[in-house]
Amino acid sequence: MVARIEGAVFNLGPGEILVILVLALLIFGPKRLPEIGRSIGKSMREFRRASSELRDEFENLGEEKTRPAAPRQAPGSTPGGPSGNGPRNEPPGNDDPDG
Question: pTM higher than 0.85, yes or no?
């Protein structure tokens, strides 16, 4: 019975990974192997970034659904309520009281 390392990538042992790397070296050659490694690394980074953004988006969506809704203002009502203590909607240019 062969003991496996916990968290091994795709349940591959060190010997199996070594065989795959040697085959890749023989197939692609020493000149193209670093280029292939860089492109795989860039692809993995982009995938992680996209999955992280998607996960954050789902978490934010869940927070918005559980958060109590803010009271909405009725159309045509003043922001300060019936007392009118809220900001006034005046046309621009009426800042000078001497007018």
Answer: no
- Please give the chain's pLDDT, 99 residues, in tens: 555 555 555 788 999 999 999 999 999 998 998 999 999 999 999 999 999 999 999 888 877 777 666 666 666 666 555 555 555 565 666 555 665
- Is position 72 within any domain? no
Distance CA 8, CA 22 (A): 19
- How far is residue 19 from each of residues 23, 26, 69, 96, measured CA to CA in Å? 6, 11, 58, 82
* Boundaries of domain holding 35: 31-66
